[in-house]
Specification:
The chain contains five helices and two strands; from the N terminus they run αβααβαα. Helix content is about 45%, strand content about 10%. The protein has about 100 residues and is an alpha+beta fold. The radius of gyration is 16 Å and the shape is globular. The two termini are about 20 Å apart.
Amino acid sequence: MGYGLPAALAAKLANPYNTVVLVSGESSFRMTAGALEHYSMLDLDIKVVVIDNSTPDRLPGGMINQHFMVGMGTKTRVKTRKPSPVSPASIARGYGV
């Protein structure tokens, strides 16, 4: 998690004539959104698809709580904040992408 965008940038730099497509969840995208600055400065043609997988039937706290509950064998949940109201598209626009 949080590896996709930098890896996509590296893949495009290593293979400039190949099409590079990144499919990422919104949390993973947010973790490395700073890499969009490099994406913008280098003017790379990478296709990015961000999937909002924060569905209502998902456990609060998402993957963190799922791993915690399975690993610890408990039903205790980690307290989490509400999801960010800032969309991945807004973040990308902020970097000029």
